[in-house]
Automatic annotation (TrEMBL):
Keywords: Signal. Residues 1-23 form the signal peptide. It comes from the Eukaryota. Pfam families: LLG1 (PF26578). InterPro entries: LLG1-like (IPR058888), LORELEI-like (IPR039307). Residues 54-130 form the GPI-anchored protein LLG1-like domain. This is GPI-anchored protein LLG1-like domain-containing protein. The lineage of its organism: Eukaryota, Viridiplantae, Streptophyta, Embryophyta, Tracheophyta. It comes from Setaria viridis (Green bristlegrass).
Length: 167
């Protein structure tokens, strides 16, 4: 009986963790993504941001650089390419406590030589930011994995192993 109660508690905890892991909405936040540097106010000026868990240095930026070309930088092509690149990483980019968005934009500008603020000024869809569709979000672009799916798999595996141990 005690083992059944422990297993139930474990499964409920796993479900709660999985729910938190999948709570991120299907948007690239306008607040986090397009605020690359300076302009922060309040206490955050004194708080250092943690390093990004995703390494943006070795991603495939040709998704953007092959479609978004100057001198005119057509908004439909540039914004579509930006979303195609960035949506799979939205969980990392939207994390305000990390430097993911600034790291990503640094590499986009390094490889694409884009004018400052190009994507922030052109790519707008609403109050929540850029909408990432399920198709864009499910792309495992650039060899990167989405934190949400990998953490969900990890939680499931750990729960299964613990359940086997207590059975």
């Amino acid at each position: 009986m005690a083992a059944d109660r422990g297993l139930l508690l474990l499964l409920l905890s796993a479900a709660a963790i999985a729910g938190v892991a999948s709570a991120a909405g299907p948007f690239l936040s306008a607040d986090g993504v397009f605020q690359v540097s300076a302009g922060s106010t309040g206490r955050s000026l004194l708080q250092a941001k943690k390093n990004c868990a995703m390494n943006f240095e070795f991603q495939n930026y040709t998704i953007i650089t092959s479609k978004c070309k100057g001198p005119k930088f057509p908004a439909d092509q540039c914004c579509g390419a930006f979303k195609e690149f960035a949506c799979p990483f939205r969980d990392y980019i939207n994390e305000d406590s990390s430097d993911c968005s600034s790291a990503m934009f640094s590499y986009i500008n390094l490889y694409g030589k884009y004018p400052p603020g190009l994507f922030a000024n052109m790519c707008r869809e609403g109050k929540k930011g850029l909408a990432c569709t399920d198709a864009q979000s499910s792309i495992a672009a650039n060899g990167g994995q989405r934190a949400q799916s990998s953490s969900l798999v990890l939680v499931t595996l750990v729960c299964g192993l613990v359940a086997l141990l207590f059975h």
